[in-house]
Amino acid sequence: MKVLKKKKMIFLLVLILFIFINNTTLLTNSAKQPTLLAHRGMAQTFDMKGVTGESCTAEKIHNPEHEFLENTIPSIKAAFNAGAYIVELDVHPTSDGEFVVFHDWTLDCRTEGVGVTREHSLKELKALDVGYGYTADNGKTYPFRGKGVGMMPTLEEVLQEFGGKQLMIHIKSNDPDEGRLLAAYLNNYPKETVNHLTVYGGDEPIAVLKSRMPDTKVMSKETLKSCLLPYIAIGWTGYLPESCTNTHLQIPEKIGPWLWGWPEKFVDRMEQKGTSTVIVGGNGSGFSSGFDTEADLDRLPDDYQGIIWTNKIEKIAPLIKEFK
Question: Which of the listed residues 67, 246, 247, 279 has the most CB atoms within 10 Å of its CB?
Answer without folding.
Answer: 279
